[in-house]
What does this fold into?
Amino acid sequence: MNSSLHTKTRKIKKSLNIFLFISVILFSVWYVEFDLMGFFYAIPTFVQFILTDFLPPDMSEMQTFIEPVIDTILLAFIATGIACVLGLVLAILMAQNTAPSKAIALVLKAALTFCRNIPALVWAAILVVIFGIGNLPGLLALVVFGTSFLARVYSEAIEELDGHAEEAIVAVGGNYFHVLKHAVIPQFMPSFLNWSLFMVEIGIRASAILGLVGAGGLGTLIKQTMDLFQYDKTAMAIVIMIVLIMIVETTSQKLRERII
It folds into this structure.
């Protein structure tokens, strides 16, 4: 009897969830005035635009892409390096098993949550206003986002570490820094390398978006060519971006397999 009642309750909850989900979608479509027929009518225009204006990519001025590509790579690596150091320090101060003070950990978590919930594009737009167009706003935006992101994942990885090594060091008279050096850091290194390599990939991808607000990298060239209606050059920049991301992903994956 109880099993049958429980099954019926689950079915009712499932049906209500499905109904609620569909209702939210329909309300959203109505609220934003989404025109389904207009969407289907626009597909041929979109395909024609891609085939006639975007393709084939313009490969006649490849030298113009060299500097933006180098900027993109360097921005990603520099931002990742700075974010790794800052993120590691903040993670140690935040993690439950390494935080010297719960009050400090709480304040840091709140501040980093605030920074992390602001998209990197918004940070870049704010920093462009402050520092002007160039690579510096993009670098700072990636550092702010990367630090807040890595601090969170680092702290979670530290909290999941085996506590027996820490207890053993404390039992033989080790202090806080001995615990960090001999118990926490050695166990944490695989996760540190894994997330740090992932952050490089994020940095490469983000540079395309940050460039749309003038924050440097290959994205700046994409915006410039689109503003000048040079869509074939935009297509070439996008192709280079895709190839660059694929190379970074493949390289980081091989590094993970070899190191971790």
